[in-house]
Design goal:
By secondary structure, the protein is α/β, with parallel strands linked by helices. It has a single domain (2-292), classed as 3-Layer(aba) Sandwich (Rossmann fold). It contains nine helices and eight strands. It has an eight-stranded mixed beta sheet with strand order 1-2-4-3-5-6-7-8, with helices on both faces. β5 (129-132), α5 and β6 form a beta-alpha-beta unit. The N and C termini lie far apart (40 Å). Pfam families: BD-FAE. InterPro entries: AB_hydrolase_fold, BD-FAE-like_dom, GDXG_lipolytic_enzyme. Keywords: Hydrolase, Signal.
Length: 297
């Protein structure tokens, strides 16, 4: 089931790219860029550079069920952003069950730092980075948005001296609060609705006490502040895997804190909607245009 969800969502992204405007974009693809290593495993991303870049970058989190794979990257899914001049970084992270969510979030932070360290090389402004993803990829996008941190100034590795902050988020149907999942007090920290994803939560999810600590640690809602970057969530109100309540409570918390956040509800849609997603990626691109380039429609 974990692998099925992962494949299904990335297939939606492929469909989105192929059903977007038919105009092909002239771009250069750099494959298997190594942004880090752990336990002998290379962490990689592909970089898509449009012929006429606008100076901003979009990080696409290739994740579903906290599983990620380079083989799922498809240039068609990047077309919406490439057409507008964005350089696209398709990031592959370490997969569960070998790596758990806290370790996966470290991979994503490392990817942001790597991009910033190499911003001049890829022709992007390190202070104009947006992030997008769906489901687990949405969760990781919000994690970057709410938990970006300054670099360590005296780090031996110069990449670790860079900040892991992003400037804009636009994501799809993300988990936001594993301790209040669908309703107040409903625990989904590897149990309940998300019991089939338990390997992603690791052994800490074996006990109620452990879940309370871990659930708070990995839930983006507990890190919302007024300084959070502008955030857009698109979510179907018939989603049974990630209830729309997850988006609603996150956006409400953000607005209460004075941060800019918006929820677009897809009526009758479940955990993905291939006939609509292409249009919604355009909405994400509009959001990035407004907040990374100050271009508003």
């Amino acid at each position: 089931m974990k692998r099925l969800l992962y494949t299904a969502f990335l297939f939606l992204l492929m469909l989105a790219g192929s059903r977007a405007e038919s105009t092909n974009v002239d771009f250069t693809r750099i494959e298997d860029v190594v942004y880090g290593r752990k336990f002998g495993t290379a962490l990689t991303m592909d970089v898509f550079q449009p012929k006429t870049p606008n100076g901003a970058g979009i990080i696409m989190v290739m994740s579903g069920g906290w599983v990620s794979g380079h083989e799922q990257i498809n240039p068609a899914a990047c077309q919406v952003f490439l057409r507008r001049g964005y350089t696209v970084f398709t990031v592959v992270h370490g997969c569960q069950p070998r790596f758990i969510i806290p370790e996966i979030t470290q991979d994503m932070s490392r990817a942001v730092r790597f991009i910033k360290h190499n911003a001049a090389k890829y022709g992007v402004d390190p202070n104009k980075l947006g992030v997008t993803g769906g489901s687990a990829g949405g969760h990781l996008s919000l994690t970057l948005g709410t938990q970006g941190k300054p670099g360590t100034t005296d780090a031996k590795d110069p990449i670790d001296r860079e900040s892991s902050t992003v400037q804009c988020v636009a994501c799809f149907f993300p988990p936001t609060d594993f301790l209040n999942y669908g309703k107040p007090g409903e625990d989904a920290t590897g149990v309940g609705t998300l019991k089939n994803y338990k390997p992603a939560f690791g052994p800490q999810s074996d006990t109620e006490e452990g879940r309370k600590e871990l659930g708070r640690q990995i839930s983006p809602i507990y890190y919302v502040t007024s300084n959070m970057p502008p955030t857009l969530i698109i979510h179907g109100n018939a989603d049974t895997l990630v209830p729309i309540q997850q988006a609603e409570i996150f956006v409400k918390r953000a607005q209460e804190c004075g941060a800019e956040a918006k929820l677009i509800v897809k009526e009758g849609a479940g955990h993905g909607w291939p006939d609509l997603l292409a249009k919604d990626l355009e909405v994400c691109a509009d959001w990035f245009d407004a907040h990374l380039r100050n271009i508003k429609k």
